[in-house]
Amino acid sequence: MSHKFFVPSEQIVSDKVTLTGSDVSHIRTVLRLKVGASIQVIGGPDKLLTVRLLEIKAKEIQGEVIKSEKFDVESPLAVHLGLVLTKGNKFDASLRKSVELGACSITPLTTERCVVKTHQVGKKTERWKKIALESSKQCGRTQVPQVAEGIETLATFCRNSDDRDLKLVFWEEESDNSLKDLKLFSVPRSVAVLIGPEGGLSSSEIEKAREYGFRTVSLGPRILRAETAPVVALALLQSLWGDL
Predict the structure, then answer these.
(1) Checking phi first, is residue 220 left (phi over 0); if not, alpha (psi -120 to 50) or beta?
(2) Which fold has domain 78-241?
(3) Fewest CB atoms within 10 Å of the CB: 114, 169, 208, 214?
């Protein structure tokens, strides 16, 4: 199986491809590929290129396109996930799984019961973007999900979700409504999803989300761990309106 790399469109001119940055080191020192070897380059949302390496330098690699084909593995459902920070490496794991399950964007959030203080997060945003990129490569996606630049509040995420077709908050205290109980007039193409922290979302936060048009839904009779909830929620959404 060929190795896949994301290359910006401006680095693909006619049938010539230029790879720079960390991809060069990965090809040279990790994969140890030589001139004449082939890789796969994702050059857009639906284009997969087979590229033969022509020149391998310390900071740049040149290649030529020998094959181009349509490549579409992105879900028709754009899921915009608001994910409250969790302690340890749990957030990193949730981020990876969310990418694998087709999330369109991930926004780290802080809430009343969030056990991670924002000053402890530091410069983790760049690491999260790297995780999103690496996970996209691993699972063969053609688009890297957007990771928000900073930590947002619940209200900010809700406000920025105004144009989504559907807005959901998965809440452990909701007992009457599940996804199958939703009455929709049309199939949603975009959905904003709120997932709370270890201690859950408070009643006041739920009311605030409802003010912005979010509907509370249940993930079943058992209380799921904070890192399990986004996996289950995304799988259910993709099964209903996406590509699972």
Answers:
(1) left
(2) Alpha/beta knot (3.40.1280)
(3) 208
Helix (H, G, I), strand (E, B) or coil at 136: helix
Name the region of 140 (left: φ>0; alpha: ψ -120 to 50; beta: rest). left
Measured distance CA(230)–CA(226) in Å, rounded: 8
What's phi and psi for 11, nearest 5 deg?
-95, 10
Give the three-class secondary structure for 170.
Answer: strand
Q: Which amino acid is at 90?
A: K
4-70 CATH fold: Ribosomal Protein L25; Chain P (2.40.240)
**55 strand-pairing partners:** 62
- Break the chain into its structural domains and give their ranges: 4-70, 78-241
**67 bridge partner residues:** 50
CA neighbours within 13 Å on the CB side: how many for 54?
Answer: 12
Beta strands in the chain (DSSP E): 4-6, 12-13, 16-19, 38-44, 47-56, 61-70, 78-84, 105-110, 146-147, 152-153, 166-170, 190-195, 215-217
CA dihedral 43, 49, 54, 56 (to 10 degrees): 50
> Could you tell me if 61 and 45 are in contact, meaning their C-beta atoms sit under 8 angstroms apart?
no
Q: What is the pLDDT of residues 116-169, one digit of tens each?
A: 877 667 678 889 999 999 899 888 888 899 999 889 999 999 999 999 999 999
The pTM of this model reads 0.83
Taking the C-alpha atoms of residue 149 and residue 7, their distance in angstroms, rounded to an integer, is 21
